[in-house]
Each structure stands twice: as structure tokens, then as C-alpha cells.
Amino acid sequence: MEADVRRILRKLNIRPSKSLGQNFLTDGWVLQRITEAAELTPNDTVLEIGPGIGNLTSYLAEDAGCVVAVEIDKRLAQVLHDLLIGYRNVHIINADILRLDLKKELAPFMTSPDGTPRSLKVVANLPYYITTPVIMKLLENGLDAECMVIMVQKEVAARMMAKPGGKDYGALSVSVGYYSRPTVIMDVPPDCFIPQPGVDSTVVRLDLYKTPPVELKDRDLFFKVVKAAFGQRRKTLLNALNNAGYIGADKEQIRMLLERVGIDEMQRGETLSIQQFAQLANELHDLLKQ
Ligand code: SAM
Question: Which ligand 1 atom is at minimum distance from the Cα of 25?
């Protein structure tokens, strides 16, 4: 397979772009495992981010009802039509995933020819330079996806999976935990790609919650509190929340809120569970409404 990828790139005269995070998977077994992890059926529409030369896309197209593949690189978007010529259920969109109105673009592909609604799954070997913004966009956009199977840098996977108290636990862990149940599928070493990335990779599956694990009175306020708590992670929670300056309460009010929800003001934000962040944000919401 490695030889195939090299041959295709040579034939098309394409030099992988480092700035676009172009590291192409060359290991058929890894491609197979990613596809299996998504548990695709003909009733699924897959959103693939960054199809590249279509090596993962062809696996997805075999099992899913339809694949919508968004590729920023014009050179690749053009040749993908030829590379995937046998797959009539693949739709290529030449665009930046971060700028796309995903709900609008996906709408025409969310029903099968007989009118049955399809489920949405996201599968991607992500370009690492935009991993976090892409994940946040997918989680926050209310796409109603069932699951996401994504390859990310190993360190990012650790942050996504982290529990309170550790060095990896941060705003990304809280966001991922609020929207989904994450599972590690497999680690992937650099020699499974051309060119080889300078980091190890991990495939993660996120099962999106229909109902989040905590009830929030104001979701934006919850994420503001989380951002403030991790903005200055070496500071105490009281100081970090106060210094952020955008949560709308003064130091005395924050002290009172922390006491009310039973959190020691000297604790650091990195020790709080999602449930505690939710409690704090809900109390703050009530206070600001008064
Ligand atoms: N899917 C292929 C594979 O697994 O071998 C390629 C994956 S490669 C890591 C990432 C792909 O994302 C590249 O094809 C790159 O051009 C594309 N890409 C980079 N930035 C993008 C963006 N903002 N929107 C859409 N695609 C992007």
C-alpha cells in the first residue's frame, strides 16, 4: 500500500503540503480498523474531513450509504474524482472545513433514495494543525452526529480522555466529556504515514450524547467558567475566575458561589469534575439573574 501511495503522488506530481497537515495513511490494516470502529451501515452518511488521495474514503464508501468528503486542497479535490471513479456514493466538496456551513452542506445527503433518514457519522484522519478547532466545531455545531472516529496526535487524545486532577485535564477534556463518551481505538506509529509525522497518533471514537451528562441553565456561561478556570491553571480557582474578568461576578461573589457549591476557593480548576463546573455555572447563572 505504501508503494501505491508513493506511485499515486508521483503520478499526479503532488508534493504533500506540510502546512496543510498532509500525512497520508499507507497501512491497510489501520484504514480497516478506523472503518470498522465507525460501525458503518448503508443507512449512514459519513462526513470525512481531508480525504487527501482517497485512501480512507474508498474504505468508507464500501460500507456507508454515502460519503461527503471535504478537502481544502484544490489539487487533491480535482484528482479525487478520478481516484474514486468506481464509487458513486462519494461527494467531494473543495472547501475549508472550518468555513463550511456543515448543516446546510450535509442536508441533501441525509436521506436515502427511498426517503429514509440517514444517521451521520464523522470519520477523519485529521490535519493536526487544526485538530482542536475542528473537534470544537463538530461538537458545538449541533450536527446531530451519532459518533466521530478521528485520528489525532497522541497528546491530544490524552487531553480528550483526561479525568480531573491530571496534567492533561483541561478545557478540551471538559468539552469532549460534556458532549460525548470517548474511547481509544488504537495508537498509530509515524511509519504508517507518508510523509511520516514527527509525532505518534491515536484513533479515538466519540459517541455523542443525545442528552448531556449534566443539566446546564446557560451553556455559554458554563464554557466561560471552564475557560476562565483553565486560563490560568496554576492559580487558585478564586483568582483564576476573578482575573478572567468576563464571567460577570466580582471576587466576593465568586467566593460566595464557591462556598455555596462546596468547593474550596484554594482548589485549582484542574481538580473540578464536569458536574462541579456545571453546579458552579448554574449557581452563577442564578446570581447574575438577580
Ligand atoms: N485522509 C487521508 C489519509 O488518511 O491518508 C489524508 C489525511 S491528511 C492527515 C489531512 C488532509 O486534510 C489532507 O488531505 C489536507 O489537505 C486536508 N486538510 C487540511 N486542512 C483542511 C481544512 N481546513 N479543510 C479540509 N481539509 C483540510
Answer: 5
Say which residue the cell 471535504 belongs to.
70
Q: pLDDT tens-digit profile of 228-256?
A: 999 988 899 999 999 998 888 999 999 99
How many folded domains does the chain comprise? 2
pLDDT of residue 4: 86
**Cell numbers that stand for 161 in this block:** 480522555
| Ligand 1 atom having least distance to the Cα of 53 | 2
What is the predicted pLDDT for the residue at 3? 84
Q: Which domain holds residue 231?
A: 219-289
Q: Is 46 in the pocket of ligand 1 (CB under 6 A)?
A: no
Do residue 123 and residue 89 come from a single domain? yes
Rounded Cα–Cα distance for residues 233 and 82 (Å): 50
Instruction: Tell me which residues of the chain have a pLDDT lower than 50.
Output: none
Query: 226 with 277: CB under 8 angstroms?
Result: yes
Q: Contact 210/164 with Cβ under 8 angstroms?
A: no
Residue 196 lies in a domain: yes
The answer to whether position 213 is within a domain reads: no
> What global pTM score does this model have?
0.96
* Domain final position from 169, 188, 208: 208
In this predicted structure, what is the pLDDT of residue 233?
84
Q: How far, in Å, from the CA of 274 to the mean position of ligand 1?
A: 32
The atom number, within ligand 1, closest to the CA of 50 reads 12
CATH code, domain carrying 163: 3.40.50.150
The model's pLDDT over 38-56, given as tens digits with 9 standing for 90+, comes to 999 999 999 999 999 999 9
Last residue in a domain, options 208, 229, 252: 208
Phi, psi of 202 (to 5 degrees): -140, 140
